[in-house]
Hints:
It contains 20 helices and two strands. Helix 2 packs antiparallel against helix 7 (126-156), helix 15 packs across helix 18 and helix 17 (317-327) crosses helix 19 (368-379). It has a two-stranded antiparallel ribbon with strand order 1-2. The chain has helices spanning 2-7, 9-22, 26-36, 49-61, 67-70, 102-116, 126-156, 162-174, 177-182, 188-209, 214-227, 232-245, 250-272, 279-282, 293-302, 308-311, 317-327, 331-348, 368-379, 384-406; strands spanning 88-91, 94-97. The chain is mainly α. It folds into two domains: 24-135, no CATH class; 143-423, no CATH class. A hairpin with a 2-residue loop joins strand 1 and strand 2.
Amino acid sequence: MPKLIRRNKIPLLLAFFVFIIYLANLPIDYTKDLKNGLYRRMVPSDDVIPNTFLPYLVVREKTLVFDKIFSTVNFFDDPEHKPNPYFLVKATGGFICAYPIITGIMATPIYFVPLLLNKIPEVTYHENIIKIAALGRVAAAFYATISVFLFYKTGELVSSDKKKLALFTIFYALGTNTYTVSSRGLWMHTTAQVFFSLILYLLLLAETKGKNYFTLIGLLTGLSVVNRPTAIVIAFMVFGYVVLFKRKQLIPFLLGATPTVIFLAIYNWANFGSPFIEGYAARGAANDWGANPLIGMAGYFISPARGFLFISPPLLLAFVGMYQKIKAQDRLQTMLALGVLGSMIMMARWDTWDGANAFGCRMLTEYLPFFGLFAYTVFIKLPKKLILLMLVLFIYSFYVHFNAVFNRKSRCEGNDNWNFYCLKFPTKKAQY
Length: 432
């Protein structure tokens, strides 16, 4: 174990550093929400509510059904949430999470000890409600930190320049939505980013070191889709890579993926009466794909509130990296690049391509391991003058995301997609 720690000293130190940064304003947010009787500092969006409370239900109530806390938790008392909160859906046994539950299940071990010690005996009081939210923040920060650690380890497979890798990893951790989205609450993006980080690392390990992890890659690919259905595009490209270029590994890959397919079918059948109907479809969200993709794609590049150009400009290098890998006919990275580009087009068709009241490119957050790696492959080859420009853009990106976390509470309204309001340092105190 000490040898393993010594070998990973740099990424472990980076991970510890960013974990502390991720939780730096948690005490402030907790204290203010405790005093004002609100939760808007502790919870970045109502979307994270079900998976934030799911561990409590699992540990304390031994259920996945929300009915036992539906009438007591004041999240559900808001007029916009009654009688049917959009983030819950009526299933066979009662109200359950409208979103996939993998994120809540993965967060459960972090909740376990405080709940086992009866530190949160019930959720009638506001103080206990925001304690649950605090545990959710800790869990989100933990998983975002894992993604940062894995990004460094992945970068080691493509470059031996530890200084540049450490610098770019810090940018990945603090100058992108890894900070403003993944570390701030139990979004599906948070755990999806971890799944994609692991898949990318293991695929590159197999490609560069000849390691055989395809059963595990299959399992993680299946879990990524169970966790977030829009991961299907990346999953399809990974499957295609195995079929086209790693055919001997097809059976191990399928053996890994099959249990996740069976789990999803049983869960859907038990709750919605059909293996082919899931939470999104049950609440009617399957029809929310009518947006003009040209607007969404333009937004992902040049929207002041959502676009890479203004939110995390060094990530624009990723598109250069994708072009280079496709041109070089790099089999693995070409498939991944096509998967990322296909995913962008898909998300641009979503009615809330902008991620609604959240900061930056929320809908592309889980793809950051891919964007980051493609950008890094270009970054390490830049001449010194352009490296200096990148340093300036790193610092700018840090400002954007620190300002978003500490002053904007990781929020940005859709009305501000095409102005600079969400990037500005606020001149007035927030109302929450």
